[in-house]
TrEMBL record:
It comes from Oceanospirillum multiglobuliferum. The lineage of its organism: Bacteria, Pseudomonadati, Pseudomonadota, Gammaproteobacteria, Oceanospirillales. InterPro entries: Ala_racemase_N, PLP-binding_barrel, PyrdxlP_homeostasis. Its cofactor is pyridoxal 5'-phosphate. Gene3D superfamilies: Alanine racemase. This is Pyridoxal phosphate homeostasis protein. Keywords: Pyridoxal phosphate. Belongs to the pyridoxal phosphate-binding protein YggS/PROSC family. One of its GO terms (molecular function) is pyridoxal phosphate binding. Pyridoxal 5'-phosphate (PLP)-binding protein, which is involved in PLP homeostasis.
Amino acid sequence: MPYTHIAQNIATVRDQIKQSCVQHQRQLDTVTLLAVSKTKPAEAVRAAFEAGQVEFGENYLQEALDKQQALADLPIVWHFIGPIQSNKTRAIAEHFDWVHSVDRLKVAQRLNDQRPDHLPPLNICLQVNISQEESKSGLSLAELPEFAAQIAQMPRLCLRGLMAIPAPCDNPVLQRKPFAEMKQALLTLQSQYSSLDSLSMGMTDDMDAAIAEGSTMVRIGTAIFGARDYTASH
Ligand SMILES: *Cc1c(COP(=O)(O)O)cnc(C)c1O
């Protein structure tokens, strides 16, 4: 069995989440673990599912669709967390439960229009470029109110919250600043839109800081599946 380490890794990550919750006075059931399986084979996802993991995040559409087909027998909750090309929105609207990386109105409108009627509204997080990096996708904090107002008008989308990927930083204290800004932004929007309950933030290297500042969904790849090898397909 080549993927036996995955169950142990998930147990370790769940334990770290628990410790962070205790340390930062968060209730354990308010933090969801999203396993990020990009570049990893379907068998690795299956091993994680068998270890009790239900929510998975994918970045590359075709790769995700292939895995979904191979794993169609499992009741997995699929999250799309990668950059979205507007010609790919139909497949995303049809095959995912959540999209974390919405930062263009055109993409949001297409997801709304293309979400099949037999499925519930698509759960949406707006991606915020919280570290204001030139090269990164995401909205600025200033753009959020207008953008949220537009999304709230779209009946086939459910605006659930905000997502961010802060610039890498190896100081655990400094890591908290962008996450605190995200929490503040969520609180502001929550006063207007009752559907918002999610802060998608925290990865393998900054999970504790994100939980300290109110993350409700940590997106963990490396700590579960090991380092990624991009030379093969991406
Ligand atoms: C790859 C990826 C992750 C997981 O990162 P790790 O550092 O491997 O935990 C989380 N979020 C997004 C958007 C990603 O692209």
